[in-house]
Design brief:
By secondary structure, the protein is of the alpha/beta class. It contains 14 helices and 11 strands.
Length: 373
């Protein structure tokens, strides 16, 4: 009898644990992301771009995104642990022993995160490290996870890029076009570089750097991208996207700086016709792709001029696609010191490193021209 009772108790414990397990797949299917790390969480709260719907309304707003069985289970979970609920939450690690090890800036950031969440009406839950590990997929969360609505890059196809004359004064005059960048770490690193180099523009809105990604065969704006960008993704999307799906690339600094396109080559060809310089990153000019004019490949140090420019980077494995390369006016390369054939695998730079170097150089050219004028 004692053995039977013990078995029943064990079975009850297992059933209870299974009943309270966090259904991450259902949460993601319902449109929730789990941002992890101090910088992404702080920037997401500061930008206030994501959906932080009232927890009481969150499930009702997503009924059409969840199957009936999941809805039944979720209704059971409403009175249970917050990590299982279909609602925005800020999760903090309850063990504060690591707090004393943080730098002063991180301590202040942590306090700001909790204050912003409270001011915005986002409930705060203190949970153990195991819960945070599960919510972040065992990624480095620094004791902070924010459950919030997911993002989508707005399309730029309808309005297109701003006219170069407009870009010279009020809209970004330097854009980064990413042709099928599939690695979220690379996308995040490129967004970080674009935001760090271009910033928010301040009084010089044309100094900002815009980014265009392909709508297919590219990494979506996931929490991994946000973390790899050190939260730059959040700041570059601050247009209250969930309230305005038709954001305009020609408008003021409240517009997002990242867009998607369903046809990169067509977008670039249109931009080229309007006067944009389209520079593709390549080790050499592709042969026999353009009958209109002979495209040249310049060393980076030989690129000059204050022409509104689109820098195009190809995918990690195959580089620029043929039609995208054909849409470029010319190409640019970074010369290295490695002799060809002597160091397998290190004859080129990672795409995110390449992008950072090229963006910095092009941005410096434009800044020097701003000073001279």
């Amino acid at each position: 009898n004692a053995l039977t009772a013990n078995t029943r108790d064990k079975r009850a414990e297992l059933e209870q644990a299974a009943d309270r397990k966090v259904n991450m797949r259902a949460l993601e299917g319902a449109g929730f992301d789990h941002l992890y790390g101090i910088a992404p969480v702080l920037n997401a709260l500061t930008a206030n771009t994501r959906d932080f719907a009232d927890p009481g309304k969150a499930l009702a707003d997503r009924m059409d995104m969840i199957d009936e069985e999941t809805i039944v289970e979720e209704e059971k979970q409403q009175a249970r642990k917050p990590e299982a609920q279909f609602a925005p939450w800020l999760f903090l690690q309850e063990d504060s022993a690591g707090g004393s090890k943080r730098s002063h800036s991180k301590v202040m950031a942590a306090r700001t995160i909790e204050r912003l969440a409270t001011d915005m009406g986002i409930p705060v839950a203190r949970v153990d490290k195991g819960v945070l590990n599960a919510l972040s997929g065992m990624r480095p969360h620094q004791g902070f996870i924010l459950r919030c609505g997911s993002l989508q890059f707005p399309s730029i196809d309808e309005q297109g890029l701003p006219n170069p004359a407009v870009a010279a004064t009020s809209a970004p005059n330097l854009w980064l076009a990413l042709d099928e960048i599939v690695d979220p770490q690379n996308l995040g690193a490129l967004l970080r570089s674009a935001y760090f180099i271009g910033g928010d523009g301040g009084q010089q809105q044309h100094a900002r750097i815009g980014v265009i990604v392909t709508s297919r065969n590219s990494s979506p704006p996931t929490p991994i991208v946000s973390a790899a960008s050190a939260g730059a993704l959040e700041l570059m999307m601050c247009s209250r996207q969930h309230d305005n799906d038709n954001a305009d690339a020609n408008s003021s600094s409240s517009s997002p700086l990242v867009y998607s396109t369903g046809n990169m080559s067509r977008l670039l060809n249109t931009a080229k016709e309007e006067g944009w310089r389209v520079l593709g990153a390549a080790a050499e000019s592709p042969n026999d792709i353009n009958d209109e004019h002979q495209q040249q490949c310049f060393d980076l140090q030989n690129i000059s001029g204050n022409t509104p420019t689109i820098l195009v980077l190809g995918s990690e494995g195959s580089g620029l696609r043929r039609l995208v390369a054909k849409a470029c006016t010319d190409f640019v390369r970074i010369t290295g010191g490695v002799t060809t054939g002597t160091a397998a695998g290190v004859d080129s730079l990672n795409v995110s490193v390449t992008g950072g170097i090229l963006l910095w150089h092009l941005a410096q050219i434009q800044k020097r021209n701003d000073v001279s004028t």
